Amino acid sequence: MKDNKDISRRKALKLMGLGAAALAASTVSFKNNPFLTNLQAKALNGDITPVDKRLNYKNGEMVSMLGFGCMRFPTIGKGRTAPIDVPKAEELVDYAYAHGINYYDTAYIYHGGKSEGVIGNALKKYPRNTWLLADKMPTFAVNSKEDIPRIFEEQLQRCGVDYFDYYLLHSISKQSSYEKVYEEFGGYEYLAEQKRRGRIKNLGFSFHADRACWDYVIDKHPWDFVQIQLNYIDWKEDGEYLYNSLAERKIPAVIMEPLLGGRLASLSDSANKILKDKNPDLSIASWAFRYLGSLPNVLVSLSGMTYMEHLVDNLKSYTNFKPLTLDEQTTLQKAILEYQSYKRVNCTACRYCMPCPFDVEIPSVFATYNKLVMDGNVPNKETQSDSEYAKKKAAFANAFRKEFAKGGGPETCVGCQECLAKCPQHLPIPDLMERISKEF
Ligand code: SF4
Ligand code: SF4
After folding, report:
1. Cβ atoms of 284 and 303 closer than 8 Å
2. Three-state SS sequence of 39-95
């Protein structure tokens, strides 16, 4: 009887992607957490179907198709400095882990430096060889040669680990900053040495610059993986070029912004309708995840999930994964065309531009604007009748007055340009602020 139980436990843990070490450790580690015990019991009974995994052909590792991005943990209150709601964040991580997610992506700057500690702490109850932690050298925060080892050591300490499974040069956004940090300051050599010492298992970079910079960096070193922004909207911008470039070189792609900062979780009403008519049971977001999963060189798609319902829905897309059929691809293209007939601001809410010295709530301004675009409430004198124009102008102004009653609206922008270089989407933020505020 005991033997049978052990066999089924082993089988269930294997399904969860856990090894023998996990089997031994799980007996003691989960005792005091009723939520987790419940999950664990389900997993052990085989009641949880784990998310699909994909082979990293570079190192033989199995990586969950959905990765947990740690830049959008739930917080207590709003704003850049709002503290992480740790119990809620841990609940998400425990659920993700129990459902087979084994890739967790954090960074030095996420949540004002608190993300690393929270994810390290949430994962430490699980055997170290059952989860993969990705962290990043903050290229933009390195001002001297000495910063590099200091930051790296601090990151290991914050996360409570003695090695990173995946480590990235964070946000290569200009060739000059790559050259300064990784060549002049010796950053690449330092990190390559950490890899030789086993403190980094896989070394890559995340990318936000132009093609010339890409061509410069991609063949500089034998990268183990590269993180790029990709989704069905960005494909026709630089996405296709970057993806093909990685596939040709046999470098696995880790994907960020699969939902374009949440925008692909709900398109315009008319575009949503096209997708819902095709399959009412599928969420709009699931199309974005299935699109990426259908690309064979995508190793893992990262999603920063703040709410349990998002995690549950995203897991669904990659559990017993089915690539998009030809017919579904045609439907998606139709929806994309429909969606792109609306003009939105390409803001992903990453908040790299914040804080604004004049307290403009930049990402919130763009979110408010995009919602108005989606609802068809942007005034346009050229295309609208006088009465329609007046109606939309009033709706537009009301939305901004309501949202920014306490300040932080677009009219507060003085055009200082402090934010310009920080935006990985290269948005002309001051011009957009001016244009939006002119509407009211
Ligand atoms: S340009 Fe405007 S939004 Fe950007 S930092 Fe200056 S005041 Fe803030
Ligand atoms: S404006 Fe740019 S930097 Fe700021 S939140 Fe949006 S995408 Fe990120």
Report:
1. no
2. HHHHHHCCCCCCCCEEEECCCCEEEECEEEECCCCCECCCCCCCCECHHHHHHHHHH
Query: pLDDT at residue 383 above 50?
Result: yes
In the block, which residue shows the tokens 């537009």? 396
Question: Which numbered atom of ligand 2 lies nearest the CA of 423?
Answer: 3
- The pLDDT, as a whole number, for residue 16 is 41
- Protein residue with its CA nearest to atom 4 in ligand 1: 419
Closest ligand to Cα 411: 1
Given phi > 0 = left and psi -120 to 50 = alpha, else beta, which region is 407?
A: left
Each domain of the chain, given as residue ranges in start order, spans 1-48, 52-339, 362-438
Q: Which range has highest mean pLDDT (23-37, 180-194, 372-386, 423-437)?
A: 180-194
Architecture of domain 52-339: Alpha-Beta Barrel (3.20)
Instruction: Determine contact, residues 135/116, Cβ cutoff 8 Å.
Output: yes
Q: For residue 280, how far is its CA from the centre of ligand 2 (angstroms)?
A: 32
Residue located nearest, by CA, to atom 6 of ligand 2? 347
Interval between CA 295 and ligand 2 midpoint (Å): 27
Q: How far is the CA of 361 from the centre of ligand 2 (A)?
A: 10
- Ligand 1 proximity of 418 Cβ (cutoff 6 Å): yes
The response to whether residue 353 sits with its C-beta less than 6 Å from ligand 2 reads yes
The model's pLDDT over 27-78, given as tens digits with 9 standing for 90+, comes to 334 445 555 557 666 766 677 899 999 999 999 999 999 999 999 999 998 7
